[in-house]
Amino acid sequence: MSSISPFPFPPTYNFPPFFTPQPNTTTRHAQLKKWSSLIQSWCRHHRQYRLSLIEAVETPLFHNTALRKRLDLHEARAVIDWMTKSEEEGGGGRRAEWISDAGGASSSGGLGNGAGQGPKSVAWIWWRRPEEWADVVLEWVEGTGQRGSVLTVYELIHGEGAMSQEFHGMDTDVMLRSLNVLVKRGRAQIFGSEGQEGVKFF
């Protein structure tokens, strides 16, 4: 991560009320939209697909040390909750999704609800939704004349041919979700055992 240029925070990040839940419904909606945009931009910049809130509340994303203002875990969770809802539900257009079985010691503890992960502590952040990633992958496959060929999922994520692509280095689970969108559309077929998956594009 050290080679990544500093993240450009938006002007609202240096505005103290940005860190306080707004009581007015209209203002609150605008605030949540700005937080959603910031979280998506942050994750995209850092090539991050999952966000552990317990870890994230200690990072500059939610903690502005210059202002001495921060979003606590409860409020960060409220923002992600809003991002998981569709626009029709008054939410942020499904730009996040809770990972229910997100195991791992790195993000456990601190929630006080017994065994393992607490609910709503790790989420996918969809700066591109799986449907959108599916379009990006298919465009690359067609643009490089690989329709009809078989590629491994590993090649797609780590191969030299895709180094210039935004999906290079992608989380394997996100890639599989995106490829499954193409399967449903009849544009791809996945075969092979877990960890050794191959994909044929049509």
UniProtKB/TrEMBL annotation:
<dbReference type="GO" id="GO:0042803">
    <property type="term" value="F:protein homodimerization activity"/>
</dbReference>
<feature type="compositionally biased region" description="Gly residues">
    <location>
        <begin position="106"/>
        <end position="117"/>
    </location>
</feature>
<dbReference type="Pfam" id="PF05871">
    <property type="entry name" value="ESCRT-II"/>
</dbReference>
<comment type="similarity">
    <text>Belongs to the VPS25 family.</text>
</comment>
<dbReference type="GO" id="GO:0043328">
    <property type="term" value="P:protein transport to vacuole involved in ubiquitin-dependent protein catabolic process via the multivesicular body sorting pathway"/>
</dbReference>
<feature type="compositionally biased region" description="Basic and acidic residues">
    <location>
        <begin position="86"/>
        <end position="98"/>
    </location>
</feature>
<dbReference type="InterPro" id="IPR036388">
    <property type="entry name" value="WH-like_DNA-bd_sf"/>
</dbReference>
<keyword id="KW-0813">Transport</keyword>
<dbReference type="InterPro" id="IPR014041">
    <property type="entry name" value="ESCRT-II_cplx_Vps25-sub_N"/>
</dbReference>
<keyword id="KW-0653">Protein transport</keyword>
<protein>
    <recommendedName>
        <fullName>Vacuolar protein-sorting-associated protein 25</fullName>
    </recommendedName>
</protein>
<dbReference type="InterPro" id="IPR008570">
    <property type="entry name" value="ESCRT-II_cplx_Vps25-sub"/>
</dbReference>
<dbReference type="InterPro" id="IPR036390">
    <property type="entry name" value="WH_DNA-bd_sf"/>
</dbReference>
<dbReference type="GO" id="GO:0000814">
    <property type="term" value="C:ESCRT II complex"/>
</dbReference>
<keyword id="KW-0963">Cytoplasm</keyword>
<feature type="region of interest" description="Disordered">
    <location>
        <begin position="86"/>
        <end position="117"/>
    </location>
</feature>
<dbReference type="GO" id="GO:0005198">
    <property type="term" value="F:structural molecule activity"/>
</dbReference>
<dbReference type="GO" id="GO:0016236">
    <property type="term" value="P:macroautophagy"/>
</dbReference>
